[in-house]
Fold this sequence. Notes:
2 copies of one chain form a homodimer.
Chain A (H helix, E strand, L loop, with lengths): L5 H8 L3 H9 L6 H14 L5 H8 L4 E6 L5 H16 L3 E6 L4 H13 L4 E4 L7 H7 L6 E4 L9 E5 L1 H14 L5 E6 L4 H16 L9 E4 L3 H12 L7 E4 L2 H13 L9 E3 L16 E3 L2 H13 L11 E4 L2 E3 L11
Parallel strand pairs in A: 1-2, 1-3, 3-4, 4-5, 5-11, 6-7, 6-8, 8-9
Antiparallel strand pairs in A: 10-12
Helix pairs in contact in A: 1-2, 1-3, 2-3, 5-12, 6-7, 8-9, 10-11
Chain B binds a DNA duplex through helix 2 and helix 4.
Amino acid sequence: MQQPTIADVAKISGVSTATVSRALSGTGRVSDKTRKRVQKAASELGYTGNSIARALRSKHSGIVGMIVPSISNPFFTALVESVEHELLRVGKTLFLCDSQGDVALEARRLQSFQESHVDGILVSPCHGIDSVTALNLIPKSTPVVQLDQFVVGTATDWVGIDDEQAMDLVLTHAAERGAKNAVFVSSASTNSSAQARLAGFLKFAEVYDIRVGPDDIRLGRFSVDWGEEVGALLLAQPALPDVIVCGADVIAFGIIRAFTAAGISLPGQVMITGFDDVAFASIITPSLTTVRQPTRLLAAEAVRMLSRRPSEETITHAKVAFTPELIIRESTARLTPR
Amino acid sequence: MQQPTIADVAKISGVSTATVSRALSGTGRVSDKTRKRVQKAASELGYTGNSIARALRSKHSGIVGMIVPSISNPFFTALVESVEHELLRVGKTLFLCDSQGDVALEARRLQSFQESHVDGILVSPCHGIDSVTALNLIPKSTPVVQLDQFVVGTATDWVGIDDEQAMDLVLTHAAERGAKNAVFVSSASTNSSAQARLAGFLKFAEVYDIRVGPDDIRLGRFSVDWGEEVGALLLAQPALPDVIVCGADVIAFGIIRAFTAAGISLPGQVMITGFDDVAFASIITPSLTTVRQPTRLLAAEAVRMLSRRPSEETITHAKVAFTPELIIRESTARLTPR
DNA sequence: GTGAAAGCGCTAACAA
DNA sequence: TTGTTAGCGCTTTCAC
């Protein structure tokens, strides 16, 4: 037999479908006796409900959609886990998608969520400019919160960290440890985080009198591979910088791999810093000095924003930036004097 | 205004809703002229369709649900990425959930998917025994493929690797490198993979004359933390084993961290092997000898199985086991003679 | 090739 | 407290 429907339960328990609906969902007044009878019938039949039909009728699905650029970046998996944890508390289910850093794919995922009438969308957009089209296509009725990255020209809430402050922390620390010059390795994609980190780096390098040459800004991707490429490039140069500042831990991992393979002493010959504080940052040799993102806080705030009732017509959107924290480990121990 | 519906498109283009449906979905005969007109009207209105209504009516959603025990285990994220890649080719969307290794949560996720009428479910069950109830609650009409792990007492397809053969590869290699005794560190959860790996370990340890004492089987969780705990325990013992065989890379990472912190030379004093070949296995110091799981193949086969038409009443289920591959790296270089 | 009409399973008004 | 009724937006017969 097919999946039992509300009508089957109604027939068995001798009440109307409306009463079954009320008894099972807990909305509306139903006598205890009837409720018991309905529940018994439902469990006997193995009735589980049809959330498609429910969603069609009631206009909400109990599902929150989330889109991240890369599920293999441990920063995002940590974020996703925190979000799931928060959603569990409000009884919602998370459906996760990966945009693979591709704007077109991201747009398709967004549309999937929209067509599925999810109750809200959390997105870490993959592009600071091109993602704007897809994001603005989402009807105002669906709450959207951007996480980590923010796309200029969109009108949604945002939760992230203060990237500029993070760079201040990193460069203050580097200067204290004696850095006189620095290289910055990050992502070329024009998203807000990458840009803010770059801007912050340049600003505070100047403030703390750390020299940055024209070739010392290396922009590629947030990936281990990009780190390895840059590592090879740096090895080919006559001298290593005092410190290599990375826009993501995974980039630092790649550079460390390249340097270790080449027999470079870390941090003896060059200091290196990451960004995110993913789990492996403390496992790698040398353990990585990095900027910790408060994923639990980010997730909690994002979920809170999603469920905020749109109070007025005059919808104002909030931008919440948390304070990052510098985690100091081996990779920025002092350089050995030359 | 609200989201446009098929009726709005019909009104603007001057045809019936049935024709709009046919024109837009491509099913059924529609004249080119009408089709063009409908498409124009649809795009003018920004019509996107309502997949809830579509799913309710047509009984399929274009969505495949996947449940993994832990999204922070890089093995699973690699698997998820491969699955997404395969699903993209058949035009389906993946919705991912995390069971956090919790049977009750896994059951809830499964029910979410069932109620959402997904076209199929891919699941890597978190428990070899307790997961059986939830899995058997899924109606026969929803195709289910178990990945990696298999739950005894269920009737679904399965795709994984030959865990016993994998252990043969590991122990053959260890024996060649001079191991006379070994410790096995893995997960205590009674899932098929954990059990098959343990059984294979014991079997081939005997075959290759590698001594395994009663305290040399350490079963906990598939996590870095568990590896660190075991690392501390092993350090407290009078002598280190020749080789530590781990049931997952993440466990090996934890042991390596504990040993490195204690100043133990790896692999000089003890060899270590992992399982899965996650990306970080080649980055860690020492780089990790491990068993590579062919995630692309696993994913492709699983997706193929999902879309296989249930041919007959006599539904037979397939179990496909791929051959694992041993990746030899630094962590099993020969021991320094004592 | 196109339209009319009947639902998919459920919930929300409105009656009773 | 409960039942009746009317759809949600779409696809899919069945006519024409």
